[in-house]
Amino acid sequence: MAEDVVRIEDGFYILSTSSRVDGRTCVLKQGDAFAIFDRVGDIEEFGNGALGFFHHDTRFLSKLVLKLAGERPLLLSSTIKEDNAVLAVDLMNPDIPHASEVTIPRGSVHVFRSKVLWDTACHERLRIHNYGLSAFDIVLTIDFDADYRDIFEVRGTHRERRGRQLPAEVTKKAVLLSYEGLDHCIRGTQFVFDPPPTNLAPSQARYVLHLEPRGEASCHIEMTCLEALSKDQDARRAMLEKAPRTASSYEQAAECSAQSLAESRAKAPRIATSTIPFSEWVQRSASDLYMMETKTPHGRYPYAGVPWFSTVFGRDGIITGLEYLWFQPSVARGVLAYLAATQADSVDREQDAQPGKILHETRSGEMAILGEVPFGRYYGSVDSTPLFLMLAGAYYLRTGDLDFIRDIWSNIERALTWIDKYGDADGDGFVEYARKSKNGLVQQGWKDSWDSVFHRDGKLAEPPIALCEVQGYTYAAKIAAAALSRALGHDDRAAALTAQAAKLRERFEDAFWCEDIGTYALALDGSKKPCRVVTSNAGQCLFTGIASDEHARRVAQTLLDKPSFSGWGIRTVATTEARYNPMSYHNGSVWPHDNAIIAAGFARYKMRSEAAKVLSALFDASRSFDLHRPPELFCGFPRRAGETPTLYPVSCSPQMWSSGAVFMLLTASLGLDIDGTKRTLSFASPLLPDAVSDMEIEGLSVGDAKVHLAFTRHGDDVGVNVLHREGDCSVIVQK
Question: Which of 265, 353, 588, 610 pairs with 89 at a CA distance of 20 to 30 A?
Fold first, then answer.
């Protein structure tokens, strides 16, 4: 019945209509393209339907299914190599009958398939080997299709109208599938087979292979994404002219991909520990950064996450820059440069934009181009602007790169103006939000689900809404801007910003502290009434330094108590609250990046053991995740003996700020601080994670110097030794 239908108020809800099935997928990304395969290396519709090969927010390959003699092969093993460059899959044939007899016993045929992405193309190499004692003929087929669905359609958004599929172009060795969108863009997928198949049709390649004993056959498939404007004359012909005539070398594509990732890896420190799973967590997180960083006209930018957020997100990029700052400060520089170049310069209600505001998200798919979703260039984040200022200050302190700060100084000043003029529209001293776009995000903090801000009784808060952590970001932004002003010789400006920050801190304590729940209110609603709810948001206030010492300790105690701490990490919402649901996106789940920020906040207030507890919990969780890669989030069920964390069905993996969590957690545990302006590297009461007794960090930069450090546990103490030093820098250890 109609009254039994639950209606979701969120227009950008990610639809999940069936089980995860196996749930484990294999992800490759290079540039603006990414691909998600099942563990066999196929693409087919199951679960949330996210499998495919995507480029510019469009799915260019929606089906790719390999069969032997009409049967799916059996999986032996499947892995993404450590550098994230290649997917390698080993398969064997099932029993293949002919009439009433088994003519090819299972395990006679080995299929090795490997895939790599390079330059908007997916390359696949197949090697088929006969380990049987007799020769035979076997049919190998590859079924393929392209639906050209926008990423928001794949997520579940319904469109009233779509473009039209164009007739397929088929030659002896190639197929071109194409689609003309409503945005007058023709998108095509060119399949090139080497050697040419025995038979080639618009949706299937068929090879009849003769294999002698110990014999082998191989083929290479190149699947390339193509685009052309249909309003141009002979657009289809132009697309065909751009399409590859022959498959380029698989080896060359694999080498280019691996070399690109290696170049990024060579610039970063190397971390090794005595505990292999911990080292694997760190190494995979570093490899995810190298894979997700994408070249843009303004520098390299870490895209947010696969599949739903493989694009520029302001908030995600800034937090990723903060997480990786000590490890690879170039990430922060690329983020700052891009966001400065795309800073809003006018009022646009449909884009939730005002002058000086920092970008929330940008999209390039058909629906964004047509305005069916508002995210072509969208500014609906209340926190991206103060976070931008925080990152600018942190980047300068880490590197001493004052020339770059001069380059973006006008952007910093415009961001400060946005905070005072538009962020605090009612002049009450707090930064709040209320969406202006009818199609934009209702909630504009990091918890941007429609139901994430509420009162103790579960009633949703009315806008404009002032989130507690956003006041912390604003406080830290003004402190950072004051330091930058001082470095540039603007002492009066620095003094004014420092005074504004102090006033905000005092007003924040008065308005947000809730003695009855032992933490800060989640938010103030439009009537300035506090949302007296225990959430992880309050923990992020510690990261920014806005909390008083006394209240910081109370917040830590509350967040590490059973209602908030699941055993795998800190929940977004405590179990005692009306809207708590461990299976929700933002109201009871565990987010690794959120936990890392909170742990860094604990460390800021000298609660090192509390920070270590969070690190240990997330490390334990990471051991259960595929490839040791923390997903965007996981469910907030309590930790149970002998069980693993419960996965959330549509979370992104990799998600950059989840991958970066381990680096911020290490900062918190080691008490690590780098001052590039003074060429100092310091450690305050360093601790190692419980599971780690020894750790080395080699090639850590401090200005133009590099150091190689060794950390060794001695009971409750950790020794820090400088094994090698190049250049001039000081290493300070404070007990």
Answer: 265
Residue 657's contacts (CB-CB under 8 Å, 6 or more residues apart) are 304, 316, 319, 320, 323, 592, 593
Pairing of strands 672-675, 361-362: unpaired
CA-based angle 695:566:640, to the nearest 5? 90
Query: Tokens 């290479």, residue?
Result: 220
Count the Cβ atoms, other than its own, within 10 Å of residue 258.
17
pLDDT, tens digit, for every residue of 127-146?
A: 999 999 999 999 999 999 99
- For the packed helices 384-399 and 330-341, what is the interaxial angle rounded to 10 degrees? 140
Tokens at 418, concatenated:
């946005």
In sequence order, the 6+-apart residues with CB closer than 8 A to the CB of 675 are 397, 398, 682
CB 26 within 8 A of CB 38: yes
DSSP collapsed to 3 states, 588-618: CCECHHHHHHHHHHHHHCCCHHHHHHHHHHH
User: DSSP characters for 233-262?
Assistant: TTHHHHHHHHS-SSPPPHHHHHHHHHHHHH
Tell me the pTM. Answer: 0.94
- Do β-strands 58-61 and 466-467 pair in parallel, antiparallel, or remain unpaired? unpaired
Burial (Cβ within 10 Å: 0-12, 13-18, ≥19) of residue 639: middle
What is the arithmetic mean of pLDDT over 355-372?
95
Residue spans of beta strands (DSSP E) within 119-203: 121-130, 136-145, 164-170, 174-180, 185-194, 199-201
Tokens 């039209």 label which residue? 164
Contacts for 205 with CB less than 8 Å, ≥ 6 apart: 141, 142, 144, 175, 191, 193, 197, 199, 221
Do residues 396 and 675 make contact, with C-beta atoms less than 8 angstroms apart?
Answer: no
21 has a pLDDT exceeding 80: no
Asked whether 117 and 291 are in contact (CB, 8 A), the reply is no
pLDDT on residue 1: 37
Placement of tokens 């038979």 in the chain? 199
Phi, psi of 589 (to 5 degrees): -80, 175
- Nearest residue to 656 (alpha-carbon basis) of 181, 379, 294, 142: 294
Q: What's the CA gap between 327 and 304, in Å, rounded?
A: 18
265, two tokens? 């890896």
Q: Are the C-beta atoms of residues 520 and 513 closer than 8 Å to each other?
A: yes
Residue 102: other Cβ atoms inside 10 A: 12
Of residues 571, 549, 564, 543, the one with CA closest to residue 667 = 543
Say if strands 466-467 and 377-378 run parallel, antiparallel, or are unpaired. Answer: unpaired
Looking at this protein, which amino acid is placed at residue 603? A
In this structure, what token pair is assigned to residue 362?
């940008």
> 574 CB contacts (<8 Å, ≥6 apart)?
533, 534, 535, 563, 564, 580
Q: Which amino acid is at 509?
A: E
Check residue 96 and give its pLDDT. Answer: 85
Q: Nearest Cα to 56, choosing from 170, 156, 183, 211?
A: 183
The reported pLDDT for the residue numbered 461 is 98
Give the pLDDT confidence of 606-661 residue by residue, as tens digits. 999 999 999 999 999 999 998 899 999 999 999 999 899 999 988 888 999 999 99
Q: What's the Cα-to-Cα distance from 540 to each of 533, 565, 603, 622, 731, rounded to whole Å? A: 15, 15, 12, 22, 29
Token readout for 267 is 């610039």
Max intra-chain CA distance, the chain: 91
Helix locations, 513-572, DSSP H: 537-544, 549-559
Using left for φ > 0, alpha for ψ between -120 and 50, and beta otherwise, residue 284 falls in: alpha
Q: How far is CA 111 from the centre of its chain?
A: 32
- CA nearest to 168, candidates 201, 120, 135: 201
